[in-house]
Every structure is written in structure tokens, then in C-alpha cells.
Amino acid sequence: MLASDVTALWLTIKLAFITAAILLVLCIPLAWKLASYKGRLKPILEALIAMPLVLPPTLMGFYLLVLFSPTHAFGQFWFWLTGTQLAFSFQGVVIGSLFYSLPFVMQPLLAGFKQINTTYNQAAVALGISPIKRFFYLTLPLLKPSIGSAFALGFAHTLGEFGLVLMIGGNIQGETQVVSIALYDHVESLNYGAAHQLSLVLLAISFACLVLLFKFNKTVINGDANRA
Amino acid sequence: MLKLYNTWRGYLLILLAVLSNPLHAKETLHIAVASNFKPVLQTLVKNPALKNLNIKISAASSGVLHSQIMHGAPYDIFLSADAARPQALIKDGFAIKSSLTTYAIGLLALWQPSTGAINNKLAIANPRFSPYGQSSAHYAKNYINPPYEFVYANNITHAFQFVETGNAAKGLVALSTLKAAYKKNNDKKYLNYELVPINQYPEITQQGVIISASRHLAAAEQFMAFITQPSTAKLLQTEGYKTKEAHVSK
């Protein structure tokens, strides 16, 4: 494999790891609230979360490109904050990935919270245990498989990210050239040998991710109700 | 009525209705075009000289179209953004050798919409697979003073977007894109460019071919004759391309 491909591979793994970790931190409290929320806005909130599933990644990429622009308020704010520009940078790609993989982290968490929030929680409420204590001593431990799935799905989905990075990335080695972009680069420049090699490695990693996911979290993926 | 749809006579009637559609009175021509040339082609096909043809346009990058044709895509004509791909198709027997035509020559412009430089990023099309990108990289390395930092776009239009959205301070873009954008939006920022001298970068020869598998050869030949005739060449020049005729006369 080419040295640039190894760089791209590491960059992708780093991106997937960071994205999945940030999303977990953001989504756990959000899913916790949303699972017990029964207001009128619920379908709207759920639709918003599921949007990245149906939107073309290039569309999200294009609007992020506009948002990141130094002529836009958000782009200006970021520049003031960090002194760097978001487009063509690793941070920019991370922000894009957060949108791109959001539903994949959110859905398993929501499903997990929905199951837990019923009987166990009611019993704990009846025993007079405080909400904070309930969250850390009851909900989180019961949620472990869901958290594992959420992380693994978020990670695996980010590995294959393409259209969004293509739009905002600028194909810079070690910064924004992820595996899918490197692959595209090989195919477009008719370098099929390198493309095959890189595909094989990506395939193996994705497969291993999913095997681990199914091995340890069968219940969450298959939606079996009788667990814990 | 409902039963009609479930019988073979029903299907026959539907088939007849479709076949008798007046659109099919014209001969259909399916043109695969490199994205950068699509806006111009859309103007060209409205020309009365082509009113006997029903032209369908598929736009993508030349690389994508090339590989689609190799896998049997039903195109009649391929208008590529380069010379290598049409010639490769001829070599592999997918295109007709005698039909090879240089229909346009791409022109580069260095575009910097605002004078206050926001960064040192220079957007160019990826030189690894874009002919515009190869010419851009050649020019940038030899004639643009550092400091600048390349950002590689997927194609020449995408490079334009990097500059347009303000994420790159300047970029090497196609003159035709700037002209089209100015025509559409009438914004003065599209005029803040310098035309890159044509002797300072490898020529961007855009060639077209007729696909061997085409079943509309006469129509395809009619179109190829149209795209190289002097009046079309004149129009292409106003749209930001150079043509062979102009090259000869100058």
C-alpha cells in the first residue's frame, strides 16, 4: 500500500473515533431527555435527528461549505475563536461527520432508553431514588450494550464517509484526505491497482467492526426485548 | 377498465400509446458531456439548426462518463473535457475514430473576488485526474508567487465553488464558469479575474467522439458538424472557450 494511503487510513480511523466519541457525549443526555419526552414536538425532533439518513451528503457538505466561509457569521466566529479556518481542515471534517453520523449514534441510544425508562425506572422512582442517582446507577449500566452499539455504528458509518468530505475537504493529505477520497482519487486517475488494495483494507476493517458489533450487542441490533 | 390493465391487450394498448408519443417523431440523441461544458451545451441545443433532434444530456466528470461508456452506457456522443479519454475509447473500440473532434479549448482564469486576502489558499482542480487541474498546477508552480497553499477540488467547477463560498482566497477556474456566473447573477465580483496567458500552461483540449454502439449515427454526425461550424465556434468564444478556427486565424 502507498504511504499516502496509510496516512489516509489512519486519518479515517482517527476521524471515526473522535466523531463517535463526541457524538456519544452529546447524544446520551439528549436521548435520555427525548426518550421520556411526550410533547407535541416529539415527531419533529425525531425527524430532525433522522434527517441525515435521507439527505444527500453532498447537500450537507455544500451548506457546511457556505457556513464555514469566512464571510459567514459562523465562519467568522470560528476564526475569532481559534484563528483557523474550518474548510479544508480536520476540525471541519469532524464537524461534518457529527452531522453525517448523528442518527447512527442516536437511534440505538433512543431504543435503549425507551426500554429502560419503563419498569426498572418506575421501581426506582417508587423506592425514592433521585434522578441523578437513577441515571448513573441504573440507566447507564443497563444501557451499556446500547452505548457500545451506538459507538460502533457511529464509528463504522464514519469510516465510509465520502460526499461530505469531498465537498468541504479539498483533498489534503494528512488533513482531509480520508480513505474514501483517496479511493476516489485512485479510481479517477485510473490507478486501479491501488484502489483495489485500499478497498480491501477498508472492507476488512468495516467487516471486523460489524462482526464485533454483532458478537457483543446482538440484542440491540436485532431488537430483542428480553435482555438484561 | 381495471381488468384491461391485467390483460395482454391492456399492455398492448399502453405500449401503442407510448410509441405513438409525438416526442418519438424526432430522432433522439443522447449526449454525455463533461460537467464544465454542460451549461453551454444547454444553450447550443436550443439552436434552430438542431430542431429535428430530441437531445438528452447526461453530465458528469469525464472520468465517470468514460467508465460508463466502457460498461455499455447508451450514449451516442461523448464530449470530454480532455483529449486522452476520447482517444482511449477509440483505442479500445468504443468510439468511432473518424468522428474525433476538438470542439473547444478550455481557458484558465485566476480569480480573486476580493482584494483583501483572507488566507493563502489557492483552489485548483485536482491535477491527478482533471485536465484543467493539470494545467492549473503547471501554471501555479511556475508563475504564481508564494505563499499559497493548494486545495484540491474534485473538478474545475468545484474549485470555483471553493472560491465562490469564500473558503479559498483565490482559485484557478475556467473562464467559461466565470462568464456563465456573471451572465446569471450580474455580480461584479465575477469580473475580478486575470486571464491566464495561454502559452503559460498546457493546452486544455476538449475532444468529442461518436460512440460506436450508437444507433443514431446520422443524427450524431449532424450534431458533430454543428458543434464545429463557424457560427457555433463564435458563440463558444463569447462563452469563454477558444476554438480551433480562432487558433488558426490568429
From TrEMBL, chain A:
Transmembrane segments: 6-32, 44-65, 77-100, 135-156, 194-214
Residues of the ABC transmembrane type-1 domain: 9-213
Record membrane topology: Multi-pass membrane protein
Subcellular location: Cell inner membrane; Cell membrane
A GO CC term assigned to this protein in UniProt: plasma membrane
Signal sequence range: none
Cell membrane in keyword set: yes
Record keyword Hydrolase present: no
Major localization listed first in the record, in broad terms: membrane
UniProt xrefs under PROSITE patterns: ABC_TM1
Keywords recorded for this protein, A-Z: Cell inner membrane, Cell membrane, Membrane, Molybdenum, Transmembrane, Transmembrane helix, Transport
Family annotation (Pfam families): BPD_transp_1 (PF00528)
InterPro entries named in the record: MetI-like (IPR000515), MetI-like_sf (IPR035906), ModB_ABC (IPR011867)
Organism domain of life: Bacteria
GO molecular function terms noted in the UniProt entry: molybdate ion transmembrane transporter activity
Function: Part of the binding-protein-dependent transport system for molybdenum; probably responsible for the translocation of the substrate across the membrane.
Sequence similarity: Belongs to the binding-protein-dependent transport system permease family. CysTW subfamily.
NCBIfam families: modB_ABC
Protein name: Molybdenum transport system permease
Taxonomy of the source species: Bacteria, Pseudomonadati, Pseudomonadota, Gammaproteobacteria, Alteromonadales
